[in-house]
Input
Amino acid sequence: MVCLGNICRSPLAEGILKNKVNPNATFVDSAGTAGYHIGNAPDPRSIAVAKKYNIDISRQVCRKFTNADFEEFTTIYVMDKSNYDNVIAQAHNKEQIAKVKLLLNHIDTKITEVPDPYYGGDSGFEDVYKLIDQACSNIAKTIKEQQTNG
Ligand code: 4NP
Output
């Protein structure tokens, strides 16, 4: 799960998807394309909205996306088109580019990007939570089907 700062959207996406998959079978992580907040905990507003839905993201630590992530992960979900551009700029080949998907391609909505809530109020975090939650439900369903079908 990748966003710009790795303190608002992608920590939520990491926590939400982790909560929907078998942790012994699926590894979920998050990173940011920018390095502004490396080593920091998620934004308190993300921690609060996750807590409201009984998900604890408070112990996550911000890190920066690197090319090694293309090898470590089967799929890289990005929150918006700018994240997409920043991530594929670090790709070395077509296979790596093909791993990168917009998270909201996984829900039936006209909205294609998870809006950046950093400069807005608390309601932005609630909206972002709901969008990410819907997408992660669909992703978790697909992962379970793949794991069941081998
Ligand atoms: P995020 O939000 O990409 O969802 O983590 C942001 C967090 C911090 C900044 C921008 C976006 N920033 O400019 O510091």
The longest strand covers residues 76-78. The chain has a mean pLDDT of 96. Residues 2-144 form a domain with the Rossmann fold fold (CATH 3.40.50.2300). The CA atoms of residues 65 and 78 lie 11 Å apart.
